[in-house]
Amino acid sequence: MRISSLRWGIIWIGIGLFFLAINLEVLDSLVFPRLISLWPVLLIAIGIELIFRRTRLYFLALFSPLLIALAFIIAASGDFRFWNSIDFWKGWKSHDSNELTEIANIPLDSLAIEIELLIDSKESQVNFLSQNDNAVVIKASYQRRAPIVEHSKTENIHKITFEERSINRTTIFGLRRFQPRAEIEIRRDLPVSLDLATTAADAELNLEALTLKKFNLDMDCSSAQIKIGNILDSTAIILNGETGKLTLILPHNCGYTVKGNDGKSVELRTLLSERIKDKENLSGVNVTLELKSEFENLSVEIY
Predict the structure, then answer these.
(1) What single DSSP character describes residue 90?
(2) Residue 188 scores a pLDDT above 90
(3) Do the Cβ atoms of 256 and 272 come closer than 8 Å?
């Protein structure tokens, strides 16, 4: 067998295994920029090939495909550390995409009067649950990188930030195989000011478990469904960004004030007046709705 045939066979088998590992989600698509950063290895491999291919040590030319294979391994590992084999192989493991893992348990003192939630969920679907414990529990499923959670306190107001960092598991053919999720458990009787940004394709936000004081949403998605539950008097709901279809599911016993006189605000005001027929059973809670978002279709449901 010619050395050149063996060499090229090794290279093509290695490249095939590399892309197969991406499609099977063993590796993530971020290996490509890491691999490009190792382009000098290709020059070294070509140099080895030119030096040894016409000498008695021609078999050493096999080091060129092995060097290229080593570059692929480094790009796949993502940490460039060979002296610690445990850390090296740890980089290859992916978190179970179906498992929710607790990543934060933030205790609240008895004097807490409000929670400020700042959430950058990116493509993650976020669910809110109520609980009786005096704490905020955050769980998430993720790939490679866990979300960042930070907590601070000003007087009796707790501020919690959540940033999704999960790697977007996209194959070379553009097929997405992984959908990150997060669950946030909060004591129901505490007022919550929620600032949330999402780029999930079909965002579904069920906020029934929260006692909303303020809700600011920044979205960039194909469709968005928002269900509001327990709200305080003078709660402000502000919707920003873009979506193809916007669906609002609102409680029947509240009074709604729609800010603005543009076409979309007028449409929302008209839908609310058509849906809420019984004005006498209102609880006295007034909600301000402000539409700063762009959307093609608007739907309102009252429950």
Answers:
(1) H
(2) no
(3) yes
